[in-house]
Amino acid sequence: MIDGKKVLFSGMQATGNLTLGNYLGALKNWVTLSEEYECFYSVVDMHSITIRQDPAELRRRARNLLILYMAAGLDPTKNCIYYQSHVSTHAELAWILKCFTYMGELNRMTQFKDKSAKHADNINAGLFTYPVLMAADILLYQADVVPVGIDQMQHLELTRNIAERFNNLYGDVFTVPEAYIGKVGAKIMSLQDPSKKMSKSDENPNGSIYLMDDPDTIMRKCKRAVTDSEGVIAYRDEQPGLKNLIDIYSACTGKTPQETVAEFEGKGYGELKPAVGEAVISILKPLQDEVARLTKEKAYIDSVIKANAEKAYYVSSKTLRKVQKKVGFPERIR
Ligand code: TRP
């Protein structure tokens, strides 16, 4: 608890171009959650180097992501928005936790298996211990809740196991975090293959709407979205492409899927698709304008980065000191 509020931690990587799916599925909810929780939202750049990155590009993307957090509506005086690499406690706690994590546990991580298959030329130790750094991120802030997608659930479960293991040995040191699974089905699928999640690493750029796509591009992608030959507007699993368009429209307009279906009843896909395009543009255009405005406020952004890194360090170092003491590191001489 901080100031009587429960603590929330989440992070995002600055790799790839963020999509509408990242926004509707995660970032938009972060803003809602920030009213209820004391939130720490990190740009997890240390995780990003488990895959080889172009340094200048990583730096640029990380800053853009941090600005995007703010443009989406996260107030940086109320939410701790910071770069993971600016706060040294993450690496320090991760080392200690690695000594409380078993090879067997890490071997079972499906993301490690997937990523090492995909990057067979660079299966480094950081890729293997990635989930322990994530555990450190979460446990340092004594987070109660962690909003994550389904693909990160296994890592969160590992985090809980590490926390419980440590607590069993040394007493109540860590809060054992819970996953926060969003209520609304804002899981956005590819526009070209609705059986797959809309992804920043999709090879087919028409499958994803990127947050920085211009209006014409957004409209074109929506109009080309894969649907079906039934020709009837309904919200059902048998029409996955259509269902996805209804989900996108609903998420952008704040309507329920049922309301959207009612709105388009008796109309064709040819009317729905441009309406989806307009709805997406009405969400993304203001976001893009705000990103552009903030990007110019260089000194202000720098001051946010500095102040929040200090705050993150202050909070997290309390946990780290406690842990260091428990495992037997000598007291600092001051
Ligand atoms: N691994 C997460 C992802 O790729 C990002 C992440 C890092 C994270 N640390 C975290 C998410 C802590 C939640 C909590 O999506």
Mean pLDDT: 95
State the order of secondary-structure elements, H for helix, E for strand.
Answer: EHEHHEHHHHEHEHHHHH
Q: How helix-rich are the residues, as a percent range? A: 40-55%
CATH C-level name of the largest domain: Alpha Beta
**Spatial separation of the terminal alpha carbons:** 29 Å
Strand residue percentage: 5-15%
- The tally of strands reads 5
Bound molecules: tryptophan
CATH H-level homologous superfamily name of the largest domain: HUPs
- Helix/strand-derived class? mainly alpha
* Strands ordered across the widest β-sheet: 1-2-3
Q: How many alpha or pi helices?
A: 13
Largest sheet features = 3 strands, parallel
Low-confidence stretches: none
The CATH topology label of the largest domain is Rossmann fold
CA radius of gyration is 21 Å
- Tell me the number of structural domains: 2
> Any idea what the shape is?
globular
- What's the architecture of the largest domain in CATH terms? 3-Layer(aba) Sandwich
Task: Summarize, please.
This protein is mainly alpha-helical and 334 residues long. The protein contains 13 helices and 5 strands. The longest helix has 30 residues, at 298-327.
